[in-house]
Amino acid sequence: MTPEQFIAERTALGLSQSALAEALGVDQGTISRWEAGKTRIPPAIELALATLKEKLHPMTAPRRPRVLVADPVAPEGIELLRRVADVDVRTGLQQDALVAAIPAYEALVVRSETKVTRPVIEAAAKLQVVGRAGVGVDNIDLDAATERGVIVVNAPQGNTIAAAEHTIALLLALARHIPQADASMRAGKWDRKSYLGTEVRGKTLGIVGLGKIGSEVARRAVAMEMRVLAVDPFVPVERARSLGVESVDFEQLLMLSDFISVHPPLTAATQGMIGAAEIARMKDGVRIINVARGGIIDEAALAEAVRSGKVAGAAVDVFTAEPPPPDHPLLGDPRIITTPHLGASTAEAQERVAIDVAEQIIDVLEGRPARYAVNAPLLAPETLQVIGPYMGVAEQLGMVATQLVTGKLEAIEIEYYGEITEHDTTPLRAAVIRGLLRPISEENVNIVNAHLVAAGRGWDIRETTRASHEVFLNLVSVKVRTSEAEVAVSGTVERAQPRIVLINGLDVDIAPERGMCIIVCDNEDRPGMIGRVGTLLGQFDINIQSMQVGRRAPRGRALMLIAVDEEPTPDQLAQVEAIDGIYNVRLVRL
Question: How many Cβ atoms are within 10 Å of 531's Cβ, its own excluded?
């Protein structure tokens, strides 16, 4: 160490020669001689100065973010978080306690018990991310989170294998009467004749809903040498074929299947999709499995079908009301296997969702995008100003297109016109995908995960931008082609309000609102048509909010759009469709 370096170190310490001499245990004259260069500075003094510096001015460690774990999650996820953050596990907090605690944390981990309400989010001044260790996020106020720039993540893949394996377990238990035989043995009986089973090899399994879980069930069933049929209009035939699955329509699946397993989300379209009428069209002796959601299958109808012998057995993991009441019709028949919502209840699934959420929280805290963000991130101000107003109408176009088509999906096209093409249209693409899925799926889609969601369903979306449109300043158009039909829906924003302005090239003018129901009639344009439809709806006591007609030429093909206050039943829609001159009727829910 040179005299100059020594002087610089003493100056940095803020000590006089006498104070440094006292700290080092030498006399002040020695310090003077070192600084004057008259005496060699011992090598040990450099280490002593470093030790003194640490003692007087300890290095401040970078502050670690804080994470609050408010619900029980697997310890593997907590340990992963502790590598980069200070983690507090405080389960069972009431709302007031959570509001009081949350300002100190950058991240929050919950399952379904803790409610992350707007007051919680508004109190969370530092909060960057909320992680839901599971699939659903209905206990989190997504709007409030998005407004505050808080990313919400979940773990949609974590329980896929667990649910698929539970489905297969119930299928085999049905085929071989395993729970019933076990109960018989425990009752002291040795009754082999009553429990003659059936092999699953060579049998036909019908899968309703070929999403993530349905696909995994299909893979396992194919491995057991079952013939697998599937119905899912939003999964391309090529995707089904790659799984070894035959893509069929719903009627074929009902009539041909020996086992039927349901895997769609619970939506307005799937509520009660299998009832007494559908069961009547099934094979005698069919076996039915539900590890998806309660309410997809009419529980009373299923119980009656088992009692009558039409259905040889059923296995049910989910119920409309959970837990079901003791007198629930599915609980009293020994031919019906019931489990208490165990689809995701494996140690591996709980560990997987905890790790998935922990990894995403770490990504957000370290400035990286999360894999499964379920709310749209904030847009740049300049993009938000131009693109933002069109995101709502883009989602509504997707919703309308999904509900107007039938058949198997083949292609999706999105066209953008006008000033919006000068900006990043990725948020609009994400909004269209979200709308396409909203009537048929519970997946939350945004700018972060839209590409992954579309790719996971085998969707190849073609996008086109055009500098201008002959009529509208800005326009978004969505075209969906299936094996049976093609529909194109276009929309714009006028006076800050979304408008649907074209359906299949016909001029319309719809101001879409959430909760609106629209009856869409493809019909001949001829006198009296509107009156006949209106009279029939009046007989049904359905109030008409508005009505309009789009047409290309007088007395040609027309489109009648009737916004109604009350949702018609399927039977009422069938009666409207039976009117002479009406080709088909669709109900669109917004």
Answer: 9
Residue 4 exposed, middle or buried by CB count within 10 Å (0-12, 13-18, 19+): exposed
3-state DSSP: the chain helix, strand, coil percent, rounded to 5? 40, 20, 40
Question: What 3 state SS string does 105-117 have?
Answer: CCEEEECCCCCEC
Q: Nearest 10 degrees: CA dihedral of 162, 168, 173, 175? A: 170
Using the Cα atoms of residue 359, residue 364, residue 368 and residue 374 in order, give the sign of their dihedral.
positive
Q: Are 162 and 140 in contact (CB under 8 A)?
A: no
Residues sharing a CB contact under 8 Å with residue 100, sequence separation 6 or more, in sequence order: 123
- Residue at token pair 């409207």: 576
The CA-atom distances, in angstroms, between 140 and each of 263, 379, 449 are 24, 21, 18
Cα separation, 5 vs 143, in Å, equals 59
d(CA 519, CA 131): 40
Beta bridge mates, 409:
482
- Say if residues 466 and 417 touch (Cβ distance below 8 Å): yes
Distance CA 508, CA 562 (A): 11
User: How many alpha carbons lie under 13 Å from residue 92 in its C-beta half-sphere?
Assistant: 0
Placement of tokens 């200070």 in the chain: 86
C-alpha distances in angstroms, 119 versus 94, 148, 182, 255, 472?
A: 13, 12, 51, 52, 41
Handedness of CA 182, 183, 184, 185 (dihedral sign): positive
Instruction: Return all residues near 384 (Cβ < 8 A) that are at least 6 apart.
Output: 378
* pLDDT score at 408: 85
**Radius of gyration for the chain, computed over Cα atoms and rounded to the nearest angstrom:** 32
Check whether the bond before 323 is cis (ω within 30° of 0).
yes
- E-assigned strand segments in 125-193: 129-132, 151-153
Side-chain-side CA neighbours of residue 394 (13 Å): 27
List all residues 6 or more positions away from 452 whose beta carbon is below 8 Å from its beta carbon: 371
Residue 159 CA to residue 166 CA, distance in Å, equals 11
Residue 157, pLDDT score: 83
Q: What is the pLDDT of residue 192?
A: 92
| Residues carrying an active site annotation | 293, 322, 341
Q: Which letter does DSSP use for residue 248 in this model?
A: -
* CA dist., res. 134 & res. 72, Å (int): 12
Instruction: List average pLDDT for each run of 10 residues in the chain, which is 590 residues long.
Output: 81 76 78 80 78 62 86 94 95 95 96 92 93 85 84 88 96 97 95 94 97 94 97 90 94 97 88 95 97 94 97 96 92 94 91 95 85 72 82 93 88 95 89 86 67 80 93 95 91 92 91 89 91 94 91 87 92 94 92
Amino acid at 580: D
Is residue 337 within 8 Å of 315, Cβ to Cβ? yes
CA–CA separation, 590 vs 395, rounded Å? 10
